[in-house]
Prior knowledge:
alpha/beta; Rossmann fold; 13 strands; about 30% helix; allosteric enzyme; EC 2.4.2.9; UPRT
Amino acid sequence: MRIHVVDHPLVAHKLTTLRDKRTDSPTFRRLADELVTLLAYEATRDVRIEQVAVETPVTATTGVKLSHPRPLVVPILRAGLGMLDGMVRLLPTAEVGFLGMIRNEETLEASTYATRMPEDLSGRQVYVLDPMLATGGTLVAAIRELIGRGADDVTAVVLLAAPEGVAVMERELEGAPVTVVTASIDERLNEHGYIVPGLGDAGDRMYGAAE
């Protein structure tokens, strides 16, 4: 597994505003969208391309286009939905799948409640979206689901990561074709499984609390 922390002044600036508890939901959603687009630029650095002939107003030349099969973007519901637009802005031809997962707040274990994606992901580059890599349980379960369907190139795009979650992914996904792209690896998890200093519950801050 490979992890890439994006070091850029605009990433740091937008992340700081997301962390601020005074930032309201509309502003949070907008900034998260903008931040994801910046992360997506780095996450797609190795997106597969193929050569194509093109006619400019001046002459014929050779360019590139995204290869087939199309990349697959998979937000983890519900908070990952807030990252989808920022990702497909750079990959407008990507296919979109959905993976619904929920974390038990007592055991911190993740379970799947919904899936909507192709059964066969062989040869596909897959980008999975989840705002927080905290305990690592949700992303590990999600990536295992993708690999189980044949995915051989998975990139997880997360706003924030905790060292504990990174360690879990490195242990549980050792040797797997996985890259994690994030804006920051924070200090630690607290006793409730939240990232410190973090930004709180990303889903609640995007959409408001929901029972």
